[in-house]
Amino acid sequence: MIQLGRKTFVALIILVLAMGVGLGGWGAGAVERVKVRPLLAQIQAPVVPAALPVPSGSFAQVAAAVKPAVVNINTVTRTAVRTPYEEYFGEEFFHRFFGEAPPEVMQRSLGSGVIVDPSGIALTNAHVVERAAEIEVLTADGQKHKAKVIGMDKKTDLAVLRLLGSGSYPAASLGDSDQVNVGDWVLAIGSPFGLEQTVTAGIISAKGRVIGQGPFDDFLQTDAAINPGNSGGPLVNMSGQVIGINTAIVAQGQGLGFAIPINMAKKVYTELVARGKVSRGWLGVSVQPLTPELAKSFRAKDAKGVLIADVLQDSPANKAGLQAGDIILEFDGHKIDAPPDLQRGVGLTAPGKTAQIKVWRDGAEKQVEVKVVETPEERQASRSASKGKSLLGMDVRPVTPDVARQLNLRDPSGVIVARVDDGSSAAEAGIQRGDVIREVNRQKVKSVADFDRFTKGLKEGDRVTILLQRGPMSLYVAFTVARG
Fold first, then answer.
1. pLDDT digit string (tens) for 192-229?
2. Which segment of 44-53, 174-183, 425-434 scores lowest on mean pLDDT?
3. First CA to last CA across the chain, in angstroms?
4. What is the DSSP-derived secondary structure letter of residue 350?
5. Catalytic residue numbers?
6. The pLDDT of residue 98
7. Which pLDDT belongs to residue 25?
8. Helix axes 376-386, 448-455, angle to 10 degrees
9. Cβ(310)–Cβ(323) under 8 Å?
């Protein structure tokens, strides 16, 4: 279960308070003109549990229908214990003198999941199974099954598992999270602290929450009790349909749980099952929020939409005729109110699809048709991966802003080693996954294209010198190219 840290939580509270201060003058004036009491008198307070929209007047039927599909996920992660000397000098230097592999510590963790296909395919969170060496799934009937990861998508924190067993499994029905309303009753089912098949009840507290977990934040907020171990379990409506995958809580708060909308999960699930990965759509525009002042400047009807600040050359947006100064109002039929709305909409659109975009330009609405393509980073990664095993025996990826931030790189140039083949020239030279390559044969490497160009003509017997960055260290490695 992802827990929002104290700083993130405090920042969210400060943001809410700031918004309250900014809107205070308007709110006070509005209250003076609205007769509140007659309006409230028309609203009937719900009675619990008699007014529940289930025939029995309790949650029992809903829980009984869904619980058989909810699973407990146990993972084992093997982590090498690194000494301070290894941290400073690097594993290769340390092993050269001591000749022993670092001891491994087995770490166990718990999570939840929900079977969504009778063949044994389950949805869960990526952080539940990430780096897991072993995965064991406990089904509602008490049976234990080994499982493997079909694919995971860290940007949405979703993963798909396949239970390694025969026969048919109880599967949950998936609902439509777009039809969920604030105030609807929901159940959260999972294994908090390892307590299997725990059911808690609450309501949908809010929709479209952005909590700083990633670029595709669009969470359902609920006050149904969610605790560590609930991660990956289902959030269910009163029709017994899964409308969210529980994923995060605020550690310092109560009744603050967040779930990934099932409509987003469906798209990710479909791609992971079909291809083992998710391809993101890309437009090639830089956008900014549309403030009331900017809306007036561009003669817009209101401050709804996002303003295009820049259009990249040769991008899909450029080819479609989008311009800086256009205000995007809708993307593929969905209203765009803020930059995250556009980022989610484009990112979850399959590359190759043609989308309709409604823009405001020169005081009038205009429809633009654009063909979405795969992101440049994924195109580069696909080209690199499609080359298969090279003579060097390693696979490299671009150093994206996220990678540079995670590795604390001051200089984002170079390429990162994503895979090293056992027994290859690169492996024998000590190159490791996670190393950043800065030079090849004294030539600066700034991108994957540079690396491909500098290594393209290599053949067996050639000498190669590579400058690596490994953590805070820089080091050269030299070796002779040979087939693994």
1. 998 999 999 999 999 999 888 777 888 999 999 999 99
2. 44-53
3. 42
4. P
5. 127, 157, 231
6. 45
7. 36
8. 20
9. no
1-278 has which CATH code? Answer: 2.40.10.120
Q: 156: alpha, beta or left, given left = phi > 0 and alpha = psi -120 to 50?
A: alpha
Q: Could you tell me which residue, 459 or 441, shows the higher pLDDT?
A: 441
Separation between Cα atoms, residue 189 and residue 388, nearest integer Å: 43
Q: What is the fold of 376-480?
A: Pdz3 Domain (2.30.42)
- Exposed e or buried b per residue across 284-317, where buried means at least 16 C-beta atoms within 10 angstroms of its C-beta: bbebeebeeeebeebebeebbbbbbeebeeebbb
Closest CA to 221 of 181, 257, 187, 172: 257
Tokens 């291809």 sit at which residue? 275
Q: Do domains 1-278 and 376-480 have the same CATH topology?
A: no
Nearest alpha-carbon partner for 377 in 232, 253, 280, 305: 280
φ, ψ (nearest 5 deg) of residue 450: -60, -45
What string of DSSP letters covers 70-106?
EEEEEEEEEEE---HHHHHH-HHHHHHHH--PPPEEE
Q: Decide: 137 and 144 in contact? Cβ < 8 Å.
A: yes
Q: Where are the domains of the chain?
A: 1-278, 281-374, 376-480
Global confidence as pTM: 0.64
The CATH code that applies to domain 281-374 is 2.30.42.10
Greater pLDDT, 402 or 6: 402
CB 428 within 8 A of CB 479: yes
Number of DSSP helices (H) and strands (E) in the chain, helices first = 14, 28
pLDDT-based confidence at 16, cuts 50/70/90?
very low
pLDDT at position 342:
93
